[in-house]
């Protein structure tokens, strides 16, 4: 009989089986699995749990290693072997094609098997329906399709995406791809844009790339870009520059940043009164007004007669501002 704290790998005596190995883990009375391989080196290994009685009386051992730790944590078993390399692994119970399966994975194969990130769909900061203002000049704008967001297009004074509260612009995010970031940074346009963003209560710049790609530029010295970004953060520390790996992650970050800013603005007035300081959210500029087409559509829905073309009469704009708390 094998020692109690040994991890055993043996050849499967059943020649007709497509899983050529047997694993035995020292957990409880012993967990036995049929396995495709002896260790998850290049990919996760499929395992099939079987009764402990299937372990042969005289196994043809391939590997016998002492065990430092073998413990169940939820729907997984963490295994740590007493050796310097290939010592950590995990057997995970999951479902595939409607049935329960077990995969044996190591830290290396776990990273390889999950190259992408699934962004959450839970609403941010508890905001039931966040209104995101998209700059009218923004091309290929984020749609926020998986989130509880209503999108309106307006001419923003700065930034590409913003949120408002009580008729004030309280936060804005400037979106940059890496080529656009490098171009605007070296031309000086980004410094001017960040200076405008710094005048808002909350603002940020989000980059649709990871920071390491800054040092792979061919037409601009990477040190120039890195130094320029560092200078921006020193001059305007209240406007963070955030690097996200992909466009999808940049969109998710933008949504959650604006939702957090909206929630902050909602509680800012009460907090400012309690502490006895000024209301930062109220210091933001007025929210951008809608287009004539948008007000025209609202007026018709409100039963106000408006022409099909041309300018709207002043009383229509007054009615819209009163209805939206912007009188």
From TrEMBL:
Q: Does the keyword DNA-binding apply?
A: yes
| InterPro entries per the UniProt record, alphabetical | E3-bd_dom_sf, ERCC4_domain, Lsr2_DNA-bd, Restrct_endonuc-II-like
Q: Does the keyword DNA-binding apply?
A: yes
Alphabetical UniProt keywords: DNA-binding
Which intervals hold domain ERCC4?
A: 131-211
Q: What is this protein called?
A: ERCC4 domain-containing protein
